[in-house]
Amino acid sequence: MTSRSSAYEPLLYDPRQDPSRTLPSTTLQDLGALPARPGVYVFFGSNELPLYVGKSVDIRSRVRSHVQQPVSRRHAQMVAQTQRVAWLRTSGDLGAQLLEADLIKRWIPLYNRQLRKRTRMVSWNWPQGEAQPTLTDGQWVVTARSRFHGLFRNRRDAQMTLRDIANQESLCLQVLGLEKGAGRCFGYQIGRCLGACCGAEPQEAHTRRARDAMERLRIENWPWPGRVAFRESGPDGDVGLHVVDHWHYQGSVGRLENLQALPDARGFDIDTYRILNRFLSAPDGRIEPIPIDGEIDMT
User: Fold this and answer.
1) CA nearest to 35, candidates 223, 202, 238, 175
2) pLDDT tens digits for the chain (299 residues)?
3) Are the C-beta atoms of 15 and 249 separated by less than 8 Å?
4) Cα dihedral sign, 219-99-236-254
5) Using an 8 Å Cβ cutoff, are 59 and 87 in contact?
């Protein structure tokens, strides 16, 4: 099946809808139908099984390399099972990365090794005024008034990381809540703790040192009050608006008036966080953040 009519339509992606049957597609025998533009491509097998989701700044060239130069036996098996190749164009690499991550977690394709599950992460949260950090699960919101440290796949990894920091900085495991007990901790007795557990070190000093040590793990705050449309301009004049709220990708539209069609569900997604931070750390004139909700809180 080959469809050319929608190959160059403006990007519209709503995560609430499954696009598998509406995407333009072609066969491996007609790869010339693929656009030589940025976007996401999907290899489908029999019974509409998603085999692989990838992204590229040149979809046609990338898919041809898959077909003509498979890099492994597994890769060749994927190509042999492919019934059609579908695609969704984006305005540039940012849109392609956000869309790729979302589709992989949606479909869990057989040949994708990365990003295959929406993992509920845990993080250390230490609000001002609290005696010790606590582990927070999953769907928290990173705002200018919260401080989260580290992204971990389970509580054990989080506790081990904080324990390593405590040992490096002579912090008290007992005061941090990593060990139970009262009075002098075992670490103080062997010289690994400066004595916050027994008054040898003031609690304020211990808290200050612990917070400073945990800064190396701090998750960047979401610097806007709500949703932001990242306007991405492509080399051929294409424009995509990628809507994100507190590190949660909500979809993409071609025009601002289409924003109301997207879901308004806040949450945290580690892949969106990592993708956006790569772009934000290296400003690109082709990407402009447009705040949608409220005013930026500078306090």
Assistant:
1) 238
2) 444 334 444 467 887 788 888 899 999 999 999 999 999 999 999 999 999 999 999 999 999 999 998 888 999 999 999 999 999 999 999 999 999 999 998 899 999 876 545 556 788 998 888 889 999 875 555 554 567 888 888 899 999 999 999 999 999 999 999 999 989 999 999 999 999 999 999 999 999 999 999 998 988 878 888 889 999 998 778 889 999 988 889 889 888 777 776 665 556 788 888 899 888 888 788 899 999 876 544 33
3) yes
4) negative
5) yes
